[in-house]
Amino acid sequence: MDSQPAYIGMDLGTFKTSVVSSNGIRESLFSAVGWPKDHVARAILGRDVVFGTDVVEKRLALKVCRPFQRGALKYLDTADSGVKDQDIEQHREAAKLLVKHAVELTRPTPGVPVYGVIGVPSRASIINKQFIMDIAADAFDAVAVAPEPFTVAFGMNALSDAMVIDIGAGTIDICPLYSTYPTDEDQVTVPLGGDSVDETFIRLMAEQFPEAELSQNVAREIKEKYGYVHDIDEKAIAMLDVKARPTQFDVSGPLKEACLTLVEPIIEGLREVISRFDSEFRHAMLSNIILAGGGSQMNGLDRLIEQSLEPYGGGRVRKVGDSVYAGAAGALKLAMSMPASQWDQFRLQTAPTVSAKAA
Asked: The whole model's pTM is what?
């Protein structure tokens, strides 16, 4: 393979997958795969497998699988994530198809080698990392995995005296940066995220407004539009069906309570991380905290974290400018920074963080 390779950075998220390519293409899609339920659905859809927004729009005709839901396959053991034994193989196949389709969205030139870096949760096990590389083998000629917070920091040139909190749908990753590649022991992964907020919101709504019809998709849309944790009076008004009749509800209380369930775990994770560092390094890190991931956009979260750091001398928290592509863009930058000799080495070695596609 003497052709100039195509480089791809991928953020393989629990809810959304983003890819950025060296050819300038960037795409995102739902981390879900759908199969037609029967031959009638297959004939109408005209496809054997469905991706992207069609998974949501056509879901009544599909068997839908979110392979990384609750951190399954990427971070948690399937037993801990609630995936049934009989469904594990389906999740594996869905994950493999999702990665391949995401790469195809970047339209790589036929015959040109494809090298990529994929972001994974900070404390993903060797088994989880190996699984990601195995499912990527059909889509990449060589692939490496890196902690998702590190790819965000790499893309922002924030590799020294910084802290990244990556709030995804399945996990919250907290990673300190101090001019070297972070070790597993440096980082903290909390097995909570946007999915758990959605579930709590639905439960609280059922308790307060049992007559309201609230699906998981609608709950997520409300959270993404109105989610907040600050103390300023704020109204979140949503139209929900009651016996098929649209009705207005003030969902502010249940929504804020659900969003707040992430705050204490984040603060506890921060405390755990900073306690490992000498006091002379803590202040610099706490003065440069970066919120990434979909949950980073929750109104008031940055200020609430800053308030929690006052007993430690204070801190400064900022949000990434692009929560959808920050991780993928950083992964692409990391991939393109590696010399060809290093990629050749990656193709040959069998270390747990590298895989090569069979010739």
From this structure: 0.86
